[in-house]
Amino acid sequence: MTTTSSNRLFALLSTASLVMWWPAISATLALTLHQDAYTHIFLVLPVSGALIVLSWRKQDWKPRSDFRAGSLLLSLAVLVALSGLRWGNPNILTGDIRLALEMLALVIWWIGSFVGCFGDRIARACIFPLLFLFWLIPLPELALHRIELLLQQGSTSFARLLLMTTGVPVAREGTTLSVPGLTLQVAQECSSIRSSTLLVVISVLLSHLFLRSTWARLFVVLVSLPLSIAKNGVRIFTLAVLGAYWDRGILDSPLHHQGGILFLALALATVVILTSLLARLEARASAHQFPDPSAEIISDRQ
């Protein structure tokens, strides 16, 4: 197949997917607009598409269609979609689980279309942006609830640790922290699920863009998980100290209601610094392993 015919077939398969899965797509968009936990979904398609386009322009690939592998993935997508319909009885699957299955089928369809139209060699080169599409799948409510509880409990524990370390008298009961003259309830809405998810997603992206080794990339992503709890704990600690020793009105200030972006920025700065340090370590290790031959020639001449 020529490049033009591959592009046309991919556009046709993509259009077909929009028609078949439009109810799931519109439901996911509604979740993204109205629930903080799914804000990151807005980033997925632009990031994935941009990475594929940039790689394509850089490498100037020539498509070699692989209909066998593509057909297998398209068939798998259809099976996943049919399983959601087959188990669509509310007594078996809840609506959010069915939506997750439908979006999973859509992502598999897109990947299968890409492999079938452009070939496995290009697909392997674009493996990260293709796998990045799985972030489009909205987590079912049960899984999301458990993550929020983990963030809520972890943030409370970390804030209490900071208060104790700095000498502030604190008592804890569940997710309630009591400091002199002030009691803070760390509600589930204060778990910062949106900023925590964004932190992890951006950490995954940064590690892919600037690091080469698997262990370094994995390390950055693993660090982002406790960091997502720590940043919210620091936020609670800051509000508690300012409220107890400066002004209780701080609890109704923008720092409380819209201050999450500030602490997300601090956490992202930490991830950027860590990624930069690891990139330098990788560069030094690569320089020692593969020294510059021109430097050896100059040294010999001297």
List keywords for this structure.
302 residues, mainly alpha, 13 helices, 3 strands
How would you portray this structure in words?
Helices cover 74% and strands 4% of the residues. The chain is mainly alpha-helical and 302 residues long. It has a 3-stranded antiparallel sheet, covered by helices on one side. A hairpin with a 2-residue loop joins strand 2 (176-179) and strand 3 (182-185). Helix 9 (193-210) runs parallel beside helix 12. It is globular and about 75 Å long. The N and C termini lie far apart (56 Å). 33% of the residues are buried.
Unreliable runs, pLDDT <50, ≥5 residues?
295-299
Instruction: Using the CA coordinates, give the radius of gyration.
Output: 24 Å
Give the overall shape. globular
Number of strands: 3
> How many distinct helices?
13
| Strand order across the largest sheet | 1-2-3
Compact overview of the structure:
By secondary structure, the chain is mainly alpha-helical. It is 74% helix and 4% strand. The model is unreliable at 295-299 (pLDDT under 50).
Q: Which helices and strands occur, and which strands form pairs?
A:
Elements: H1 3-20, H2 22-34, H3 41-59, H4 67-86, H5 95-118, H6 120-125, H7 127-132, H8 141-165, E1 171-173, E2 176-179, E3 182-185, H9 193-210, H10 214-245, H11 254-257, H12 260-289, H13 293-301
Antiparallel strand pairs: 1-2, 2-3
Helix pairs in contact: 1-5, 4-5, 8-10, 9-10, 9-12, 10-12
